[in-house]
Amino acid sequence: MIQQRLKRSATIKLPLLEVCKAVLAEDIYSPINVPSFDNSAMDGYAYAFQDGFGEYTLVGQVAAGDSHSLELKQGEAVRIFTGAPIPQGANTVIPQEKVRINDQRILFNPQEFAKGANVRLEASQCKKGDLIVPKGSILYPGTIGLIASVGISEVLVYDIPSVGILITGSELQSPGIPLSPGQIYNSNLPTVYSYLKLLGIDKIHHEQITDHRELLKDRIQENLQKQDVLILTGGVSVGEYDFVKPVLEELGVETLFYKVNQKPGKPLYVGIWKGKWIFGLPGNPGSVLSCFHQFVKPVLLYLMGHEEVFKSDGVFPLAHPWKKKKGMSHFLKAKIDQAEIHILDGQESFNLLAFSSANCFVFLEEEMTELPIGSMVEIFKF
User: Fold this and answer.
1) Which one, 75, 170, 305, 367, has least CB within 10 Å?
2) Short-list 210, 204, 191, 150, CA closest to 293
3) For the domain bounded by 2-34+125-158, which CATH number is listed?
4) Per CATH, which fold does 163-303 belong to?
5) Are strands 119-120 and 39-40 parallel, antiparallel or unpaired?
6) Choices 2.30.110.20, 3.40.50.300, 3.20.20.80, 2.40.340.10: CATH for 315-381
């Protein structure tokens, strides 16, 4: 149902310093040859190679950035530095540590080198007009460096959505403040906020609010106006203080679906308002993590230009037997180790202890009950 309604975010031109982890929305072709001239791969001496000849006369020096032209004759060499242009007539560079200097002559063993050694040839990285980064590529530092190396300063990428986080619950207290009777610490905000940062999302607004209907309505209304995606935790079940679903409907949010036959996270709400996505996640922190990973994360990645966002990370054998009741799908905290899956203790939706070592979720379908050792199970890596 989500996939049927997904649409890409708009595209935006951004400078290279602002696009790390963004997805490219255009093909990048090199406007120049790189390197744009033959240059030295190291500090040493440039010369015109002569087979079996190991003695040359020094006639000058060329540093990186030099633009003056030198033309070498047979038997001549120049001192040269890494990145400096190869003089006309030269075609080989010998490293400085391989050379003996006698007055204005360099001497070395010619058997150790071949013609063209230690020279970076023009266009050896790419030629003008070459496709160097295709549309849909994720822009990691190396890719960004490649684009910069051809002189491009900004690129077209899919815009990163802004996200609002509303953490509901009168019982919640911020970490660092002593608990009063009946309170628990708010772990959902740092969890969701950190996950958004991990995905490369920086435009994040967050609030922690108590269980009051009018306050919730006001905060939802403002966030719907300002943010592209809204994530709520808590208040989404059917208790007397669970106001999220009725307030969203009152505000005109279209309910895409409510409740999923899964554990944890059964009372999951997903809605759409004027093209914006709204997720109501259960309040238990284990449910927040599993629902965010399986439903919210794929939507955010798709908006940002990623492909195959709902695809699992493969199937692997269980390292031990496992049992579950028939009738609900399960997302279980697990650890993949040496290509085997270890389902961890502490699967309760309130229990976060397993996340100290977990690195994936195991998905078990509704009808699965007993899984012997070696059973193949589908996983989703964090």
Assistant:
1) 367
2) 191
3) 3.90.105.10
4) Molybdenum Cofactor Biosythetic Enzyme; Chain A (3.40.980)
5) antiparallel
6) 2.40.340.10
Amino acid (one-letter) located at 259: K
**SS3 at position 148:** helix
List the pLDDT tens digit at each of the 382 positions of the chain: 999 999 999 999 999 999 999 999 999 999 999 999 999 999 999 999 999 999 999 999 999 999 877 899 999 999 999 999 999 999 999 999 999 999 999 999 999 999 999 999 999 999 999 999 999 999 999 999 999 999 999 999 999 999 999 999 999 999 999 999 999 999 999 999 999 999 999 999 999 999 999 999 999 999 999 999 999 999 998 778 789 999 999 999 999 999 999 999 999 999 999 999 999 999 999 999 999 999 999 999 999 999 999 999 999 999 999 999 999 999 999 999 999 999 999 999 999 999 999 999 999 999 999 999 999 999 999 9
Q: How many CA atoms lie within 13 A of 62 on its CB side?
A: 29
The answer for residues whose C-beta is within 8 angstroms of residue 172's C-beta and 6 or more apart is: 183, 184, 185, 186, 188, 208
Residue 188 and residue 356: Cα distance in Å, rounded?
A: 16
> Cα(378)–Cα(365) distance, rounded to whole angstroms?
10
239: DSSP letter: S
Q: What's the angle, vertex CA 286, arms to CA 281 and CA 291, rounded to 5?
A: 40
> What CATH homologous superfamily does 39-120 map to?
Molybdopterin biosynthesis moea protein, domain 3. (2.170.190.11)
Q: What is the DSSP string of 108-145?
A: --GGG--TTTTEE-TTSSB-TT-EEE-TT-B--HHHHH
